[in-house]
Design goal:
The chain has 314 residues and is mainly α. It is 70% helix and 0% strand.
Length: 314
Amino acid sequence: MRRPDTAAADLAACHAAIRLRSRSFYAASRLLPAPVRNAAAATYAFCRAADDAVDDPGSADVARARYAATRARLDRVYRGEFVERAAGRAFARVVRAHGIPRQEPEALLDGMAQDLELVRIADEDALLLYCYRAAGVVGRMMARIMGRTDADALGRAVHLGIAMQLTNIARDVGEDAQQHRVYLPATWLAEAGGSATDVLALRALPSVRGATRRVLALAEAYYASGIAGIGLLPAACRPAILSAALLYRAIGRRVAARDGDGITARARVTTAHKAALIAVAAARCTFDARLRSRATRPDLGPLNEPLRRIGVAL
């Protein structure tokens, strides 16, 4: 029996999911051309569903069962078999249309697997590996969706994804600690005179704020590289990607303005501020020559070297 064509309904479900779960991404994605917006929504919805499956399951056993189900779902996507969930079916269409290599969503799931264990990040290398798995590969997939497969464009997209994940880590120090997760590197905490215990105490201690400020400083370096590569993307896609970058960067700067306090309150960007940043992004993509050409860009080397050291193929 032939299965019904559910493409339209699947996409609608993906758009609804991102509108509910990520307002910043949704606001920026509305600027994308429709085919890219739909593929981006499908990819994001699949990634988000995978993350949600292990993020708040109620028990470790449920989380592991959900993770195993997500891996099995990805197997069916790449075998061309029927997938039972809307996000999985929509992502399967993206995989076929844009040639997404399996190792990219696999890396994402490797990051999810880290969250199933006791989350402690040893050092900067471990932090970057986690950020690559959680968001760098999403940036790489997004670049492919936009038709870019050259090393420079893919590398810049990875950098932008890493920057955004670093922002998430700085913003969510307290919320993650409530789940006994510590993403601030142990070496950075130790250098500031503290440890993971300081984070788990849910107090904005100097050691915690110091390590968080270092996360934000690292994010700034990756934002600079990622934003510098936006001119490599199709012109119609640039305002959306720059908007997303500026929105996430603004969240990090809110944390920085509180001296690295990501515990006592969650940094947010108001609706009015989001609208202003989107307008700035549109103007920059129109008038900033660096975002309208393949002009000379910062050398990828210094930021890629630690990624290669941890085994990320760029």
